[in-house]
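Observation: inputs received (chain + oxalic acid).
Thought: call the complex predictor directly.
Action: predict_structure
Action Input:
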Amino acid sequence: MSSQLAALNEWVQSVAKLTQPERIQWCDGSDAENRGLIDLMLGTGDLIKLNPDTHPNCYLHRSHPSDVARVEHLTFVCTTREEDAGPNNHWMAPAEAHAKMNALYDGCMRGRTMYVIPYCMGPIDSPLSRCGVEITDSPYVVANMRIMTRMGAAALARIEREEKFVRGLHSVGDLNPDRRFIMHFPEELSIQSFGSGYGGNALLGKKCHALRIASYQARNEGWLAEHMLIVGIENPKGDTHYVAAAFPSACGKTNLAMLIPPEGYRRDGWKVWTVGDDICWMRPGADGRLYAINPEAGYFGVAPGTSAKTNANALAMLNQDAIFTNVGVTADNQPWWEGLPDGTPAKDWQGRDYDAKNGPAAHPNSRFTVSAKQCPSYTAKAEDPQGVPLSAIVFGGRRESLVPLVFEARDWTHGVLVGASMASETTAAATGAVGIVRRDSMAMKPFAGYNFADYFAHWLSFDQPGAQLPKIFHVNWFRKSSDGKFLWPGFGDNLRVLEWMLKRVDGSVDAVATPIGNLPKAGDLNTAGLGLDAGVMEELLHVDREGWYDVMENIGDYFNGFGERTPTALKTELQKITAQLA
Ligand code: OXD
Ligand code: MN
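Observation:
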């Protein structure tokens, strides 16, 4: 037996001793195993079968009404030294966190099955991939992990060969929000989650492993684990450029990753390929370019707002073999959510007869889980062990005012500043108030597994002689007019903005230099056929110098919050821009 397999067995035994399950099931990821779990959950009511004629092999799960989103206030990074977790994280001393979790885990699986899930984040044969094992008492978690990761026998075989794997322990406990914690021990490569069955808290391969633990691991190993989609844009000549883009949760990453070109572009031969919609691991290749993989194998997307108009690709992949969580259902048992033009909800997400007085039929953070391969814009490049080379990195937020539709960073250091100072209005993906503007550096505020100041320094460190780094851009699809209407059509038309970026990448257009970055020259961004009112583009591309001057001051305060650890290069860059704006 390999030493890793022995270590895994030992850990499984020690967890069983603590949690006292009735039985242990090692998951191999097979169809038969999955069928058995689905049948089990249909029997317990954890899953409800949806209409088999319209949605074969689709199921609905209703979570506990108090367990519907990530819980950032109960999510901790437990490093030995508090300053290593940084002001961007909640911190708990590892010994205290272990004591707390051990008390919660004590006997928590009595009468339950304990599932052992070996998984690989990323293509099974990629050097960029990393493995983990999640132990859970939730069959719903197993069924979702099977879609979201490469789970089972192949992952176990890789674990046997490697030196380390991430250990994740999860129990739904009694779902009491007062006994809910999501703990991360990056120094031990381990995760402990208790009291929630919700995706981001319970599918430990996703946010906990592929972002929080991986970002820490990436820093030590010279790569980056980011909250980014990866999309391939094929131009009419047949060249494909890959772009990674970071947006905070529920700001349209899935829609951008699955973008359908506007009709004129389609006619001209533009195509869009989806590599990933949420997480990107990237590393410099031998040629100095950054190569990216999507560590996930499926999509755990927000359902409301998904329609043929906003994301026809996503809608098409949801007709079969999908798990829905907290959506409503129609009288003939089809899944339903706000934003679908057809159908009427008969039951809401809590299983009550639908009544508008109770709020939306689908929870605003209701989700679908589906294999990436079902997406019509899926590309086999998502399986390439080398990853895809990135031409551009995009940062973006949800901002009603001030922030232009698009601007380009002058160089890597400026781009890191742009990412580090990103801000966005909060959404329903996390428990808490919605619509508050907060700084969300690189969209990683909830997900960086270490001190943001060190993380910014790590980003800066990629600017080495010989590096062929992607160009960095910032976008804002969400600008509103004074009467509250979106100024930019968004969705498929965002390709127009991507086209401008790629022209900047190949040097075929100039730009207007401003203190905040380079903006499109009038006429360089293709708006043909959009019918935008006169003045809209001017407004979308206007740089309000006074407004930005105040923002720079605010960014300075934000950086000061990280004290001496904030990289000098970022502070200098900020001062330079502030001076130009004065
Ligand atoms: C997600 C999130 O689920 O960011 O992707 O919350
Ligand atoms: Mn996300």
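Thought: report the result.
Final Answer: The longest strand covers residues 113-121. Residues 227, 249, 278 surround manganese (II) ion (ligand 2) (CB under 6 Å).
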